[in-house]
From TrEMBL:
InterPro entries: Tscrpt_reg_Rrf2, WH-like_DNA-bd_sf, WH_DNA-bd_sf. It holds the Pfam family Rrf2. It comes from the Bacteria. This is Rrf2 family transcriptional regulator. Gene3D superfamilies: Winged helix-like DNA-binding domain superfamily/Winged helix DNA-binding domain.
């Protein structure tokens, strides 16, 4: 199963936006993430629908934050993305009538539910402000421009 890195990518974008004065275009954000601007626009549209970002069209337009970093958790962003799968592992289902497979899957299902609940709880404890503060701690020796943070 391929890993879903949308949450990590969106958090990346939001931190860039928090450090930048004024709007950032989809092209600028896509370059920072090494992805396509269409991907950025699709994801940002979901965040705009939840009020986490704003967009302005036309010359000088782009994406800006629309939220207070202290009020938005990583779980909020995860939910805005449509709650993608948290775990890249799953059950074997080749022989659903097999009693052994049923016992194994029942045990694994409970472990998966427990792990997801723990991860969701942790995501609910971390705010965007926490991430921003950590970024500032690591880059205390200068301005946090797009070029500078990606040169490291």
């Amino acid at each position: 199963m391929k890993r879903d890195s949308r949450l990590s990518g969106v958090l990346h974008i939001l931190l860039h936006m928090a450090q930048h004065q004024g709007p950032l275009t989809s092209e600028m954000l896509a370059k920072a993430m090494d992805t396509n601007p269409v991907v950025v626009r699709r994801i940002m549209g979901r965040l705009r629908d939840k009020g986490y970002v704003r967009s302005e069209k036309g010359h000088g337009g782009g994406w800006t934050l629309g939220c207070d970093l202290t009020a938005v958790t990583l779980r909020d962003i995860y939910t805005a993305l449509g709650c993608p799968s948290l775990l890249a592992i799953g059950n074997r289902t080749e022989a659903p009538g097999c009693l052994v497979e049923q016992a194994v899957n029942a045990a694994l299902n409970q472990a998966f539910r427990d792990a997801e609940a723990l991860l969701l709880a942790r995501l609910g404890e971390v705010t965007l402000a926490t991430l921003s503060a950590d970024l500032h701690h690591h880059a205390a020796d200068g301005p946090l421009t797009l070029d500078r943070v990606h040169a490291s």
